[in-house]
Amino acid sequence: MNPKILLGLTFGVACSIIWGGHAVVARPALAGQGFHPLDLAAFRYGPATLILAPLAWRARAALVRIGWVRLFTLAAFGGAPNLLLFVWALVYAPASHGGTIAPMVVPVAGALLAMPMIGEYPSRGRAMALAVMGAGVLMIGWDGVSGNHPGAWRGDILLVLAGSTWAVFTLLLRRWQVPAIPATAAVTIISAVFVLPVWLPWRAAEVVLLPTGPVLVQLVAQGLVLGALAMFLYARAVELLGPTRAATLSIMVPVTALLLAALLLHEPISLLQGLGASLAVGGMLAAVLFTGRKTA
Question: For residue 175, what are the contacts with CB-CB under 8 A and spacing of at least 6?
């Protein structure tokens, strides 16, 4: 295999594992370790701002051209509100739902929203693949109504909203032709500016009283690994593999999430949930590899 492709696959797989493990790391913190969703947002954007600020500074000319209105809009859909929807969902829903429903909703919502936002319509094959993915998401969500996790439907609704807002974020990046890495750095800084002034007087004193081990785990996981490392890995994978191949690797996110939730958190995976995940992953694979889009 070409060393360039092999390196790109390595970066892409590592990034997918990190994304797939997000819910698995966050769920125990919210369910039994005394953390509040706002704590995880502060841990994400505080350390990540320190790391990404130099990138934003170097790209300041590009960010000025984008304009504050668009940057704040991007932050509204891809920054703290999106993260808070995701982590708040994990108060109610298991990690297996968090790591599957949200990433699977992104391409479905993205395809629906792309029609009015950027005039892009799915081909018949892609529409069928997306319908299959939607069916898979509904099967997983049904587990939150009457399966192993009754009551998780409240979190599932928030996960659908999180996936949908992220889809808007990615579409805006395309519509406005915004470079992904400078935009991510700017969104991180804007999110920190809004989250930290609320978190510091309200939650900081409570977090200091929590055990040091879990606090350090969340700081490293949220701020360093998810906030900075995953972005660099994905950007490098796109450079080495191209956007289509790199996007294919996102199929691993729900698979990784289900496996890690079962192995590390001992969350049961129902037959319906497993079938739904398999159906959605198959639809995602078909949508990325074998179908196309057309512009009006």
Answer: 117, 118
Name the amino acid, one letter, at 210: L
Give the model confidence (pLDDT) of 243-255 as tens digits.
656 666 677 788 8
**How far is the C-alpha of 258 from the C-alpha of 97, rounded, in Å?**
8
Nearest to 189 by CA among 26, 9, 52, 19: 52
Q: Which residue has the tokens 């590009």?
A: 62
Alpha-carbon torsion 280, 287, 161, 134, what sign? negative
- Residue closest to 114 by CA, chosen among 171, 76, 152: 171
Q: Cα 231 to the chain's mean position, in Å?
A: 11
Q: Dump pLDDT digits (tens) for 153-174.
A: 899 999 999 999 998 998 898 8
Rounded-to-10 torsion of CA 154, 92, 207, 26:
-110
Structure tokens at 232: 């660099």
Count other Cβ atoms within 10 Å, centred on residue 292.
10
b/e burial code for range 222-232 (CB count within 10 A of at least 16 → b): bbbbbbbbbbe
Contact 163, 141 (CB under 8 A): no
Question: Using CA atoms, how far apart are residues 230 and 237, in angstroms rounded to an integer?
Answer: 10
pTM assigned to the model: 0.89
Q: Residue 14 in contact with residue 246, Cβ under 8 Å?
A: no
**Domain boundaries defined on the chain:** 3-295
The residue written with tokens 């790591």 in the block is 99
User: Which residues lie below 8 Å from residue 43, measured CB to CB, with a gap of 6+?
Assistant: 218, 219, 221, 222, 223
- Residue located via tokens 């590390």: 264
Contact by Cβ (8 Å): 100, 140: yes
DSSP H/E element including 131: helix 124-146
